[in-house]
Description:
In chain A, α1 (9-16) crosses α2 (20-28) and α5 (77-92) packs across α12 (299-315). Chain A has helices at 9-16, 20-28, 35-48, 54-61, 77-92, 108-117, 135-140, 165-178, 194-209, 226-236, 253-266, 299-315; strands at 66-70, 96-100, 123-126, 146-149, 160-163, 184-188, 219-221, 247-250, 275-277, 294-296, 325-326, 329-331. With 349 residues, chain A is an alpha/beta fold. In chain A, strands 2-1-3-4-5-11 form a six-stranded parallel β-sheet, with helices on one face. In chain A, strands 7-6-8-9 form a four-stranded parallel β-sheet, with helices on both faces. The interface between A and B is large, with 62 and 61 residues.
Amino acid sequence: MTQRRRPTMKDVAEHARVSISTVSYVLNDTGPVAPERRDRVLDAVRVLEYSPNESARSLKRRSASTIGLVVPELTNQFFAMVAEGVQKAASARDVLVVLVVPDATDQSEEKQAKLLRSQRLDGVIYLSGTGSLPASILELSRFGPVVLVDEQIPGFDLPAVVCESRRGARELAKHVLDQGHRRVAVIGGPSALWTAQQRLAGYREAFAGAGLDPDELPVLVGDYRQASGTRLAAQALAGPAGERPTALLCANDLMAIGALEHCKTVGLRVPEDVSIVGFDDLPVSALLTPRLTTVRQPAHDMGYRAVTALFDLLEDAQESPSPARLATSLQLRDSVAPPPPDPPPVDAA
Amino acid sequence: MTQRRRPTMKDVAEHARVSISTVSYVLNDTGPVAPERRDRVLDAVRVLEYSPNESARSLKRRSASTIGLVVPELTNQFFAMVAEGVQKAASARDVLVVLVVPDATDQSEEKQAKLLRSQRLDGVIYLSGTGSLPASILELSRFGPVVLVDEQIPGFDLPAVVCESRRGARELAKHVLDQGHRRVAVIGGPSALWTAQQRLAGYREAFAGAGLDPDELPVLVGDYRQASGTRLAAQALAGPAGERPTALLCANDLMAIGALEHCKTVGLRVPEDVSIVGFDDLPVSALLTPRLTTVRQPAHDMGYRAVTALFDLLEDAQESPSPARLATSLQLRDSVAPPPPDPPPVDAA
DNA sequence: TTGTAAGCGTTATCAT
DNA sequence: ATGATAACGCTTACAA
């Protein structure tokens, strides 16, 4: 723990008995250097354990080799997966990732703004969690690229890496309908969110495709959190067996898990009494009982591709971003079964 | 997306008709400035949308207001929670967090080393996942503080924020023994890991406390991953009902989940046939069936406190770090029950 | 092929 | 109370 002063290029130059610029030439492989002197420099670097001061470099180069990653929370595995993808892609390019997790409680919007503005970041990968664009991000987008992941924000034409949510949702709903379900309810996401809209649209397409009227599909609006899944499942499944839905389309896994929880509490069997599907394919979904039928989103890939797109934008500011619509895949698991036969009607008379 | 040149202090100074130093005085609140001119400066800042170039600041101040966070993976919710805590604490101090997720596949050890060395980081929060200290981190610790979270690395006296793993493990094991279990097996973590050692020690203490011989406690060594839990549970539970363990102490939740999976596969009921406990209290553990009995670790707090400790170290390099042993808490849930009575012996004769 | 020197945008010392 | 000015450590013309 003995704190040492870090050597500078000047130290290296002196040790190697060359000029500072020669050192720079060697380190950046710019400009010709005699092999013998190059070795002297490399030696000095090793001996002194020199490594360049990146602050000085950034200052000179006007680029920080750093990108920002803004995610609403890390404990949501979907975001964690995206974050890993981002970090991998960045690391492959020798770029640092600064992690920002905006906190509703403190004055972090202000802080975040300052941080993003301070030109320590060449660009930002942004996941809102809310569907809206804070002023700070908008401002930033005037100075450098901002790439969205798995969302699109109405009114702002920002580059985005998304996946085929709609198609995935349609296939998932089709699967449910194919099993014979007809009384189906949706537990949707916040209507401001692009993903929520896409998934709902997909469900409705499947309905229409099965010759049903999409407008008869009841939709309860949740907030993508587990608790709202529990609450809305309770609401949706309140009626008697012959009337209540036999299948619940939940717009994400977290809400589906909440719905599962409700069913467990009130003694409804899944999938015998009611089928439940999610969306996201969080790692946990395969561990539950029953295992959740869901749609896998290429979260890691989306993160990775977002970084690719960001650098495309950075490198040639005119070029259009790389293709950015990734495939989803249906994960058929045991939370779906054919609907139970309706119980014989009980005459109240 | 119109790219603008960012204003510098010089621009602000000109706009406000003051000198550059006056601007600096105002912005940093260092040195006296006449109220009227101060306003002019603040105005100019607003009009020009000026924000300081942090690279220049870092260069001058010799500190980057940035810390590094090294975690083995983000999809493990324990690490994700720590990361959130770190980010919160850093944000409260206006410090950036650079995320590093070392990747075994590429030459990332080298990259990571370079990155950490480049004095863009004032210090590092390090979670190894392996129990060992890579050369790059060790080197870094000679230039700036490195704080460990939930581990300690033999041979290196690095500051660490840990929790009472041992106590938690003891209480958990005691609970199992209190239920009447006597044939118990441990599915432990990698023996190089401090946490694995602590937890094992805790189990053994509970054994001794119950008047049993700790040396008779069978220990299978896993790697903290789910698959090893499955594999080792299969191994541990191979014998006939009267001989096999009635309880499995798994050194983390992931392995416990794996064990649960094995039981489901072979038709062993939990907890009727075998009780299973974990360690960590991952969010998912409460969702499983049965809900996993486990020990909660204050992951978020550990992350937060690690940052506190880091800055204590940074601010007065002589002072000892802040207290750093956090409490754990037992989470009693339904994966534990009294052991089944032994079946009557079947005579082979 | 090598070195000199002028910045990059700040901060902080020192005159004024 | 204010303003020149010299660093901070690096890159990069330009000169030699």
